[in-house]
Input
Amino acid sequence: MEIVQSVRWSDDGRGIRILDQRELPAREVFRDLTTIDEVYDAIATLAVRGAPAIGIAGAMGVSLAFGGEELDHGHAILRVSRAAGRLKSARPTGVNLAWAVDRVVRAAVACRDPNRMYDAIRDEATKILDEDRAMCSQIGEHGAALIPDGARVLTHCNAGALATAGIGTALAAIYTAAQQGRRVQVYADETRPLLQGARLTAWELGRAGIPVTVLVDSAAASLMAEGEVDLVIVGADRIATNGDAANKIGTYALAIAARHHGIPFYVAAPTSTFDAATKSGNGILIEQRHSDEVRSAGGGRTAPIDVAVYNPAFDVTPAELITAIVNEHGVHRGPYDFSRSTA
Output
């Protein structure tokens, strides 16, 4: 089973190597990011995407605030703070980005020697990367228990290795079930308008040898009605303390359809995606993306150039529609209360 690595330190140790997901599935292109602006652009334009992966890239990116010159402690902290603020603004909905960037900033502040601050940031970012890999494996173990032999699984967007530093979140459960010898058939929503399901999930699963079928988003309810779906499992970009979960636009509709057809609906995410400061989905800021993502596709015009466009990147699935939430600590069932701990 071949599983891709989407984000890591570059070979020379001076930057961040990402698999440019804008190029998939046509080309497999790795890029080295060596400036704050390049990391910001990669996150904002979805060259690197998925809540855990952008958090890792952002954390690593803070290290690029140092250009090799000697700085006193005050100027070093100022440079780190400016880099952190810019990187956190690249995408506002996923909590992992701010969580990871703030974590390396705390490591920098705790380091009183400005000459060691760069190393402190790199060390903390590497810990975040390693922890994510371990969390993905643990999520896979817990999530696999929800997938019986012969299961037909529907997923949305991409919550696999491309979205993390490890084997994914939602797809981690599928990979682990397959490694344990269970037969799994995956249906992947196209995930419009940017087609992360068709371009990324189908590519990733095919590479790993997992049978996968792509369908347009609007066909998912019909597939359920035909009795072809046994469970739905998706990732998340932010989970409120009451269990409301923000994920790629279209997830909420899937949850409604799954409830109507009596199909379990699972969310899989690491604890870094749980936001103790957000009490419910009403408090989650939803990113609004550029209208041209809807007006055009594949280099061609798909709608009038001046037509108004509604293009939220995410929606919020209410907790009452979620059968269970899986993190690295286990499987959690409602009523949810993540205000104190996600363990």
